[in-house]
Amino acid sequence: MSESCALPFVIGPVDAVVSVPGSKSITNRALPIAALASGETDLRGALFSDDSRHFVENLRRLGYRVTDDEANRRFVLTGQGTEPLLAEREVDLFVGNSGTTARFITAMVALGRGQYHIDGVARMRQRPIGDLVSALHGLGADIEDIEQTGCPPIRVTGRGLRGGAVTVRGQDSSQFLTALLLAAPYADAPVCIDVDGKLVSRPYVEMTVSMMAQFGVHVETDWTRFVVAPGRYQGRVYDVEPDASGATYFLALAAAQGGRVTIRGLHLTSLQGDAQFVRVLEQMGCVVETGEQGLTLLGPPDGVLRGCDVDLFDMSDTMPTLAALAPLAAEPVHIRNVANVRVKETDRIAACVQELRRFGVTVDERPDGLTVHPCQSLAQNVRVQTYDDHRMAMSFSILGLRAKGTVISDPGCVNKTFPDFFERLGEALHKPFSNW
Known about the structure:
Elements: E1 4-6, E2 14-18, H1 24-36, E3 38-44, H2 50-62, E4 65-69, E5 74-80, E6 90-94, H3 99-109, E7 115-119, H4 130-138, E8 142-145, E9 154-157, E10 164-169, H5 174-183, E11 191-196, H6 202-214, E12 219-221, E13 225-228, E14 237-239, H7 244-257, E15 259-264, H8 277-283, E16 287-290, E17 294-298, E18 308-311, H9 319-325, E19 333-336, H10 348-358, E20 363-366, E21 369-372, E22 383-384, H11 390-400, E23 407-409, H12 421-429
Parallel strand pairs: 2-15, 3-14, 6-7, 10-11, 18-19, 22-23
Antiparallel strand pairs: 1-23, 3-5, 4-5, 7-9, 8-9, 11-13, 12-13, 15-17, 16-17, 19-21, 20-21
């Protein structure tokens, strides 16, 4: 993809049925589960993107057998338990800017006997992993924070996990807890994890617990304490849901332009909390319909997108989507309780504020969120900076359609989770991407 992408100028109702890739969150949980399982797992509808490729490549470096069939969106894994991890060897693992890969693979290799060096791109060296390292220490792991920053690079000297009781903070990232849970069945004794403080993005932990059960491991929990007994995952055929986070951009498209968009195969019963983003859009005057084909959003019947005041603590990945949609509302949009997004691929609060101001939008920034005020006339010829963050590129593409001359810098960053995003957007608009 080129270094920039000039968006078409579009005002008017849309009418589209959109297929989005498989869920990143589900794919990158299913991969380590399947690798550790007994028997073969066939992951159908899986995501093929930078994040999932990093995970698969690292599994192969560790000695796991993964067959990929990108044309049919399938990964087939021959579960080998911890056997490949028991070799006493040194392995370098590169995670790019994939937070799930970094956190989940760290807990996984702590089950082994080798020495594992985990590193990523420059931004990954600013993304915290210290709470996970501390919890793994408590379970018997030997992990060195090489630069003493609480972030990668780290070195894991595998000696297995003995089990026991540990505490992990809940407010920074649910991925720390998920990483511990995914590895816990392979500890020598039961693992008890207490959560200190409110658990951010709880739906992602609910997803983890549900998926572990689907692969044969039960977690006892009251959502402040999690107990996992020694066990083994069982391989199976597993269908990966469409990515609910990726769907939010197309749902926002219907909210911004009017008309209707259906996300094929996505339902409100999804394991993914971000499927509930439609309820936020409902507050803003949109109409939600459900059916066998998928989830449908209709723009406001009266054509007026309303403001809202929402706590996105449980679905913070949708914050950029809502922030980019917000200037089109008739009243201010208040987004709260998303301080954790400051340590994502970029500081997403600061980045959204900066890019909205390029469009001439008045924005109030707070430590844990922002307020976006209505903008009657968006600035033209804006070059949106994406900060190597896929969600910035996709979110601001929806707003950019409403302002003449908008250009998205580094559109290729969408490869992280949604490689053909712009092609799918062109199809939804009935304006082929090749003609932009």
